[in-house]
Amino acid sequence: MSTTVSAAPPDSAPANSRTQVLFASLVGTTIEFYDFYVYATAAVLVFPHLFFPSGNETVALLASFAVFGAAMIARPLGAIFFGHLGDKRGRKITLVAALLTMGIATFLIGLLPTYATAGWIAPFLLVVMRLAQGFALGGEWSGAALVATENAPPGKRAIYGTFPQLGAPLGFILANGLFLIIAALLPSEDPSRPSEAFLSWGWRIPFLFSAVMVVVGLWVRLNLVESNAFENAVKKGRVRKLPMAEAFKKHWLELILGTFYMLATYVLFYLMTTFSLSYGRASETGALPGLGYDYTDFVLMMIVGVVFFGIFTMVSGPWADRWGRRKTLIWVTLAIAVFGMVWVPMLSSGFVGVMAWLIIGFTLMGLTFGPMGALLPELFPANVRYTGSGISYNVSSILGAAVAPFIAVALWSYGDGSPYWVGVYLSIMALVTLVALLVGTETKDVDIDE
C-alpha cells in the first residue's frame, strides 16, 4: 500500500487543469458505460429475439445474459493489457487506446447480421464484439480514475474520484433515453414485444451513434498531459518491466481486498439495471412472473432512480473525504445488506413500493460506487497503480457482475417468480464485502505521488 502522506514537493502541482481532469475522466467513462448499457438494454429487449431464438423465452434470455456476462471475463484481461501499457507508457495513450477499442466494437455490433440471416455466425460475432467491449472497459475505468485522483488537490481525491464514477448514471440515461426515443418513434402493437421496425433496424441506431461520442472523447483525451505521479515514477526509475508481476509479488493483499471491496457494488449495480429491467417487464402470465410494466414506463421509472444514483455518487465524495473511504463504505454496505432482505415487501406494494425500491437501490449504488474511484487507486503505488486498481476492479466484475444477472434469473425461477432469493443473494454478497472492509485499513491520507 502507498506510504503515509508527506509534504508535497514543489513540482507536485496538477499537470492538467481542473476542467481538463474532470471532463476527461467523466467523458470517457460516460461513453464506455453508454456502450455497455446499450448492450445491456438490447440483451433484454432485442437479442433474445434476434440472436438466440430457441422457442423458450427463459432459455433465450439466459443465453443473452450469458453473452452479457462473457464481457466480464474479458475485463481482467483488458486490465492486465492496458494496465501494463498504462504503468509503462503512461495514462494518456492507454486511455485513448481503450476508448477506441470500445467504440469500434460497439459500432460493429450495430452492423451485425442476425440469426435469421447468418445462423450461428451471428451469435458468434456478437460474442466476439462483446468480449472486445469487456476488454476495453477493463482498461478504461482504472485509467479514468487515475486521471482524476492523480491530479486532485490535497484533501479532495474522493471528490475528484467521483467524476469517472458519474459516467455510469450518465451513460445509463443516455443509452436508455435513446432507446426510449426510438421505441416511441417505432411503436409496437404488442407491448410484450418490440415492433418489427425496431427489431429490423431501430435497435442498431444506439450502437452506431456511439461513433459520434467516441470522436468527442478522443478529442478531450488527446489534449491531456501525463500526471505528476507517473512522471515521478519515471524520473525515479520506478517503472517496472512487468507491472503485473510486481503487483502480485508485493501487493497481493491489496489486490484481494480491492476485489472484495467492489463485490457488493457490482452485484447491486447489475441487479438494479439488467435484472430489474427483466423483472419489471415480465408479465404475471409469462414463463417467469414479474411486475408486468410496459417497457417505456419501467425504463422511465428506472431513469428516475438513476438520477438518485448520480446525485448520491457526488454526495459520496465529500463524505469519503471527510470521514474516510472505509468508514463511509462500511455503513453503506450494511445498508445494502438490509436492502436485499426487504425487496419482497417493497415490490409487493404497487407503484409506490416499486419506485421506492428503485430510488433506494440506486441511492445505495451511488453511495457505494462513488468512493471506489479514490479507494482502489490509493491501494497501490504509482508504478503499479493502473495494473493493480484495474485488476481488482475487473476481477470483481467476474465474481459480481458477470454472474449476477444469470444467478438472479435462476433464483427468480427457483422462487417461482418471487425475487426473495435474489435479495438474499445481494445481502450475502454485501456481507462478504463488509468483511473485506473490516480487514482493510483507511487510505485517505496516503501519498499517491509515491
From TrEMBL:
Keywords, in A-Z order: Cell membrane, Membrane, Transmembrane, Transmembrane helix, Transport
Protein's cellular compartments: Cell membrane
UniProt cross-references to Pfam families, sorted A to Z: Sugar_tr
Membrane topology field: Multi-pass membrane protein
Major facilitator superfamily (MFS) profile domain residues: 21-444
Membrane-spanning parts: 21-47, 59-81, 93-112, 118-137, 166-187, 207-230, 251-272, 298-317, 329-348, 354-379, 391-414, 420-440
Alphabetical list of PROSITE patterns matching this protein: MFS, SUGAR_TRANSPORT_1
Superkingdom, natural source: Bacteria
This protein's name: MHS family MFS transporter
Organism: Aquamicrobium zhengzhouense
Source taxonomy: Bacteria, Pseudomonadati, Pseudomonadota, Alphaproteobacteria, Hyphomicrobiales
